[in-house]
């Protein structure tokens, strides 16, 4: 086992009615003026927003509300939120929604805590984040794991750049997780979310670290097998509390860094997928299932034993040579994505076959015009990124 540091300070309030504790918990964290952010109309239609407002109002906590967060959350809305939260003198940010809302809340917290610095400067690297303000979330979609993660992703519409920021300041203070709040999520969002959870684990399972990390591997493998099994149940019955509970908790564990202890992140597929989302505004989970098969076919020969182990432990593929098992595991994963009607190439993603100029643009954006290499399992330069995009380009 390799050395590691691990800290996940987020308090989890999990189970039926978790959101009913929001006022008491926020007050215990010192909140008095709460800026509430949400996405589209779903939390309004379900009555969740009005329920939270009643709870906050009854507790005597001041609050202001802003909606409008979109998938692939926009920088322009974050900047608007910073202005509103600053004018309101907010001391706590509360996100009601999924990963896009929580990521936006994190960005608003950073911007509000640092007046005079444009929030995008933290994502572009022009400014270093040294302070923020606390964030809480009421989770309505199990997917991004943003409720426990140290990362947040924002899209700059002006440049078409979708960028992530990893910092301890991104860790939310508290997450309220009631699986019943996910019962009404559209089926497409459910399967996209489950694939995102699976990919968060895969991007830590395949890394440059070759030494044995037995317990970390067992945790990751159990999580992957569980999310695969529970998603099949949830697709047939989205009101199955046990299945939706398992999916929700897997999402939080998958992205709190617990499945990488003694390993590291690779996240090449995320970075390549971000550029698809930035250019074509495709769903994050769909971008990942599109890229992973191409990436895996490009890199598996770097460590066929690892891919064979994945095939054996996740898909029960026990016959054949190491190479045969490795390739069979990749194909089985592709079959699983397709069984959920998730895309595995550009045509299935809905963007069509791209020309050479488009592929070069995507690779330039991903590698900062060939000045940065992606990942560590098989570090990619611009040329390699183009090759992977081309493998998905059918």
UniProtKB/TrEMBL annotation:
Work out whether the entry's keyword set contains Oxidoreductase. yes
**One cellular component GO annotation, for this chain's record?**
cytosol
> Which CDD domains does the entry mention?
BDH (cd08187)
Q: Name one Pfam family in it.
A: Fe-ADH
Q: Which UniProt keywords apply?
A: Oxidoreductase
Any one Gene Ontology MF annotation carried by this entry is:
butanol dehydrogenase (NAD+) activity
Q: List each copy of the Fe-containing alcohol dehydrogenase-like C-terminal domain by range.
A: 192-390
What is this protein's name?
Iron-containing alcohol dehydrogenase
Q: Which residues form the Alcohol dehydrogenase iron-type/glycerol dehydrogenase GldA domain?
A: 9-179
Q: What superkingdom heads the lineage?
A: Bacteria
């Amino acid at each position: 086992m390799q050395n590691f540091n691990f800290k996940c300070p987020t308090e989890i309030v999990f189970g039926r009615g978790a959101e009913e504790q929001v006022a008491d918990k926020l007050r215990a964290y010192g909140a008095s003026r709460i800026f509430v952010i949400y996405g589209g109309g779903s939390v309004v239609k379900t009555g969740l927003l009005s329920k939270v407002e009643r709870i906050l109002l009854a507790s005597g906590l001041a609050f202001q509300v802003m909606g409008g967060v979109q998938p692939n959350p926009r920088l322009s809305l974050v900047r608007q939120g910073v202005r509103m939260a600053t004018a309101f003198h907010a001391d706590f940010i509360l996100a009601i929604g999924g990963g896009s809302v929580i990521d936006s809340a994190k960005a608003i917290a950073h911007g509000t805590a640092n007046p005079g610095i444009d929030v995008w400067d933290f994502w572009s690297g022009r400014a270093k984040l040294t302070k923020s303000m606390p964030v809480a979330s009421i989770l309505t979609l199990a997917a991004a794991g943003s409720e426990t993660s140290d990362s947040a992703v924002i899209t700059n519409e002006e440049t078409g750049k979708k960028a992530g920021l990893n910092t301890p300041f991104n860790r939310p203070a508290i997450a309220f997780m009631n699986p019943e709040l996910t019962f009404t999520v559209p089926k497409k969002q459910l399967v996209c979310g489950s694939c995102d959870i699976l990919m968060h684990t895969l991007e830590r399972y395949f890394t440059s670290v070759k030494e044995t990390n037995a317990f970390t591997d067992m945790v990751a493998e159990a999580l992957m097998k569980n999310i695969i099994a529970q998603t099949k149940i949830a697709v047939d019955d989205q009101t199955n509390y046990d299945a939706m509970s398992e999916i929700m908790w897997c999402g939080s564990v998958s992205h709190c860094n617990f499945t990488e202890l003694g390993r590291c992140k690779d996240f090449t597929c995320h970075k390549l997928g971000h550029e698809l989302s930035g250019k074509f505004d495709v769903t994050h989970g769909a971008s990942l299932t599109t890229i992973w098969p191409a990436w895996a076919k490009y890199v598996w020969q770097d460590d066929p034993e690892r891919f064979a182990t994945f095939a054996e432990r996740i898909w029960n593929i026990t016959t054949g040579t190491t190479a045969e098992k490795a390739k069979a595991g990749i194909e089985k994963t592709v079959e699983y994505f397709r069984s959920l009607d998730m895309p595995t190439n550009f045509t299935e993603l809905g963007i069509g076959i791209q020309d050479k100029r488009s592929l070069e643009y995507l690779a330039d954006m991903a590698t900062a015009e060939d000045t940065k290499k992606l990942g560590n399992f098989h570090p990619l330069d611009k040329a390699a990124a183009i090759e992977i995009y081309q493998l998905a380009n059918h």
